[in-house]
Design brief:
The chain has helices spanning 2-50, 168-171, 188-191, 215-220, 302-309, and strands at 63-66, 69-70, 73-74, 77-82, 90-92, 95-97, 102-110, 118-125, 137-153, 162-163, 166-167, 177-185, 202-210. The chain is an alpha+beta fold.
Length: 313
């Protein structure tokens, strides 16, 4: 009996140590995964911005960013056009197709479940038009954001002008760089502090992202579509021009103007929404175009979230 009692005590102690060790391992692994989300978010933003498109768009409306205060914290937003393939597809001729040129936005809104926190959303529009701040689908990136502050640098030198907003339609170019300051909160159930709300971890991430340095020249380029004279030359060497427009190019046709994304047209107001080239600021935006499969569930595994952000394979 004594031997059985001793064996039972040893097995109980061994099981307790094993259980505590496995629980500690799981907690550490979850903390490490959680702390990778901040860099993964910034990696996703930098990847989009590194592929920013600024060529031949109507009124140079290719980038707009502005600061915004939500629940007392900075919740800045920006819109641009990117050559990153769209994350969603449409069916064409019986097969899924991705867009090579998409409108992209990063916006924040108040978390409806936890009003003290902000949600970070990524918007993308499969088709580029003359309103780069409207339409498309929304993807929820993270819902425990404390603040999202963006500073725009006009030039790359020590005394460069720092701005809280940037409008490429007015300035004729991209900012030289963007500094993003992201403050986010770790889920207390993952950080081991579920019973003490005062000990929630806040992580701060800062990154400077450089934008295309030749954007001013690129945005000034306007392609001209040549039009050739279909009539043979007369005996004296002269021929009739192919175009009747007033603004003709050297080939005899009308000179082309700037495109408006994938569509023609557009007025001369300088941008969508208002006459000064500024799109309307997003209010606490509704999400009418978000299908159920676009919103990750509350219990989404961290590995799945990092795959969505492109941080894990």
């Amino acid at each position: 009996m004594v031997s059985i009692l001793i064996v039972s005590l040893v097995m109980t102690a061994t099981y307790g140590v094993l259980f505590t060790t496995l629980e500690a391992r799981d907690t550490i692994e979850k903390q490490n995964l959680e702390k990778k989300i901040g860099p993964a978010i910034l990696d996703r933003i930098e990847s989009d911005l590194s592929s920013a498109w600024c060529w031949n768009i109507h009124d140079n409306d290719v980038f707009f960013g502005e600061s915004r205060i939500i629940s007392g914290e900075r919740g800045d937003y920006f819109h641009f056009i990117s050559t990153q393939n769209s994350s969603h597809t449409i069916e064409q001729n019986g097969r899924p197709v991705r867009s090579d040129l998409t409108e992209v936005s990063y916006l924040l809104r108040q978390n409806p479940i936890n009003p003290e926190k902000l949600q970070l959303w990524r918007r993308q529009d499969f088709h580029v038009d003359d309103k780069i701040a409207e339409g498309g689908l929304y993807e929820l990136i993270y819902e425990r954001i404390i603040s999202f502050r963006i500073t725009y640098f006009a030039d790359l030198h020590e005394d460069a002008e720092r701005l809280e907003e940037w409008n490429a339609a007015k300035r004729g170019r991209f900012p030289a760089a963007m500094e993003i300051l992201l403050v986010m909160e770790i889920d207390p159930t993952l950080s081991g502090y579920a019973l003490d709300e005062m000990k929630r971890d806040r992580l701060t991430y800062q990154r400077v992202i450089f934008l295309p340095s030749d954007s001013e020249l690129t945005m000034a380029v306007r392609p001209v579509i040549p039009a050739f004279d279909e009539n043979p030359a007369d005996d004296d060497g002269t021929g009739s021009g192919a175009g009747d427009g007033d603004n003709k190019n050297e080939f005899g046709g009308s000179q082309g103007g700037p495109a408006s994304g994938m569509e023609d047209g557009g007025d001369d107001t300088g941008g969508p929404g208002s006459g000064d080239g500024r799109p309307p600021p997003p209010p606490d935006f509704e999400l009418p175009d978000v299908p159920p499969d676009q919103e990750p569930p509350d219990d989404m595994d961290l590995d799945e979230l990092l795959k969505l952000l492109g941080g894990r394979k």
